[in-house]
Amino acid sequence: xxxxxxxxxxxxxxxxxxxxxxxxxxxxxxxxxxxxxxxxxxxxxxxxxxxxxxxxxxxxxxxxxxxxxxxxxxxxxxxxxxxxxxxxxxxxxxxxxxxxxxxxxxxxxxxxxxxxxxxxxxxxxxxxxxxxxxxxxxxxxxxxxxxxxxxxxxxxxxxxxxxxxxxxxxxxxxxxxxxxxxxxxxxxxxxxxxxxxxxxxxxxxxxxxxxxxxxxxxxxxx
Length: 222
Description:
This protein is an all-alpha fold. It is built from 10 helices and no strands.
């Protein structure tokens, strides 16, 4: 992998704490970047249900034994091991915002399936579909976050990018629990599908607005 880290200057001045914090203003007021963060939060809000709500849902609604849940999750790991490198070689040829929209589309299909299928084989099929989205979206999102940043501000931009995981971790399990306790549990997956639609539209809008810029045309750094 080619090194993209800037060469250090011979003399660097140490920033005060206030200078460091004020430096985040550039990322916080980068509105296209915030739109990307917002779309990514919606996408990850759905994706993280795989590691929190899905196990409870399959156990309580479909009486899936723990060993079969392990089988479902293992199908994801096997898919990544076999296909990740091939998928990476393919997606690097295409505009990254479109690849994020494609990843979210697979999430939409896979997670929505859990709302209306009821057999172990179909649960595995849904997980494989989700994993395809994961293989497309995870490497692409990190490259995009770095591509937004000015060269000297990558660390600050990547720190803000951490919200993409922190916010869904805070509200995702809580919101799903409220639905499980008070409404039809299948609504978790239907609402997830709708959130994915919003994220797809946002990623496509970013492609229309920013896709012509050279740094957003391909994810060659993957």
